[in-house]
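Hey team,

Sharing the Enoyl-CoA hydratase 2 run so nobody has to redo it. Sequence (121 residues) first:
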Amino acid sequence: MYAVRSTILEALLYRLSGDYNPLHSDPKLAAVAGFSRPILHGLCTLGFAVRAVIRTICNGDAKLVKAISGRFLLHVYPGETLITEMWLEGSRVLYQTKVKERNRAVLAGFVDLNQLRSSSL
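Structure output:
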C-alpha cells in the first residue's frame, strides 16, 4: 500500500502544460457539471498510481514498466489523499487507488512489467 496527498499544485501544473479544461480550475463550471469544486485531472490520478507501483514494486526503476492500463471509477478533488493498493501476479501488477477521505475506489487497473530482477521482489 502506498499513500500520497494530492494538491492544487498538480492542477496548476497541468494548466501550465496546456490543459485549459475549466472543469479543473473553475468552481462555477465544476458546479454546473455536478461537482462541489474543481476536480483533479484523471491523468494526474493515474500518474500517482503508476508512480506508487514504480516506487514500491520496481524499486524506482521506471524502465521496468512495459504497459499501463487504468479504468477511472470516480473523480478526485485536489487535496484528497490517494491510497494505492497493489498485487503482483507474475509480471503484472494489479492496482486499485482509493480516496482515503471518502473511502471510495477512484481508479483500478494494471501495470505490465518487463522481467523483474529477483532483488525487486
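The chain has one domain: 2-120.

Ping me if you want the raw files.
A.
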